[in-house]
Amino acid sequence: MDKNGFFGNWGGAYIPEVLYQTFQELKEEYARCRKDPAFWQEYLELMSTYSCRPTPLTYAENLTKHFGGAKIYIKREDLNHTGAHKANNVMGQGLLVKRMGKKRVIAETGAGQHGMATATMAAKFGLECTIYMGEEDVMRQRPNVFWMEKLGATVITVKDGSRTLKDAINEAFRDWVTNVENTHYVFGTACGPAPFPEMVSWFQSVIGMEAAEQILKYHGRMPEKVYACVGGGSNAMGIFKRFLDETDVELIGVEAGGHGADSGAHAIRLSSPDATPGVAQGYKTMFLQNDDGQMNLTHSVAAGLDYVGVSPILSDLWEKKQVRFESATDDEVIQALDLTMKQEGIIPALESAHAFAGAFREVGQLSPDNAIIINQSGRGDKDIFTIAHAYADPSWKEFIISRAKEYSK
Ligand SMILES: *Cc1c(COP(=O)(O)O)cnc(C)c1O
Fold this sequence. Notes:
The protein has helices at residues 20-35, 37-49, 61-67, 86-100, 113-125, 135-140, 142-150, 165-179, 196-204, 206-219, 234-240, 312-319, 330-344, 350-363, 384-390, 394-407; strands spanning 6-7, 10-11, 57-59, 71-76, 104-109, 128-134, 154-158, 183-185, 225-229, 250-258, 276-280, 283-287, 324-329, 371-376. By secondary structure, it is an alpha/beta fold. The chain folds into two domains: 14-48 and 86-200, Rossmann fold, CATH 3.40.50; 52-83 and 204-389, Rossmann fold (3-Layer(aba) Sandwich), CATH 3.40.50. Helix 11 links the parallel strand 9 and strand 10 (250-258). Bound molecules: pyridoxal-5'-phosphate.
């Protein structure tokens, strides 16, 4: 990152004047934490006692046999507290907030997963917490709203614009501008104005550090390939960062292909020609936008990948060809999920299943002496509403209808 927050042509910090001082403070505190080995130690201690770090690296023996190619290893971020890698980021920012002496956190959330993680962190650290969520998302993700409120957060329904994530982000920025004195905005992924992309990637980099150590222990050397799904890009940056200097390791980011690259209903920013460079939400990256710079509607079966922008760090690595980008369609993702459940007894989140689908396409072409790592960013059993719906399971539908009847009596 250069001094203006750019990674090559991408990133920066396009922020309103009133936030300048706050960003200055945040950058300084972050720089102090990075230099202080005690901070990282405190972070690891917290994550090993409150979450499940180090998370295991699982050898997927049955999937390996099934494809007859490279050995498949799965990095188990699903075993984190709250069920995904998001815990790494929010707990890290929680420690930072404590150091800055702020008493209130806000966050935006689309699918509700980041809101859940932030509400959890706020409960643990005794912080006041407000979560912004589009009205459309509140309706779709009721179970997450329920838990956020039970964890003590205030959930504010945003009724502007398309009533989804981008409107929630705008509203969160408005709140921040008004309450900068006591409030920190917990950004959910490796996007947004600097220093968020780099800071979030740094907290997530624990994934790759552990994975490198674990693969050396089990396999004796570095893997040939590392796969991760790409929404905003935080779990991908988390596992990729450690391997960026290992020139023999190929890094593959898998984006949400939705109904297909030609359908217009997808969230492919880097592996299709649909996205163009732009500045929005405080940073410059490849956005899915129209000619007037208005954001397009995206689609994915996985709510966490359904986003118009992407980490500026990944745009830079894409441009420099240090990461290869692919996409997987909703249908391929359900197939990969199905196979992984039946072969390994592991239920990946729909987001993570994109990385599995990308890997399954290629792993058979590698030799049995080779190894690959798939980052399982989260667990799928908590997504039962979405997954059962994606499977179009008739008995599930009956269950929902009969419950609704029961409740409305
Ligand atoms: C939120 C989420 C993602 C997408 O976010 P990234 O910042 O791209 O990692 C991926 N997987 C799971 C399980 C998530 O909850």
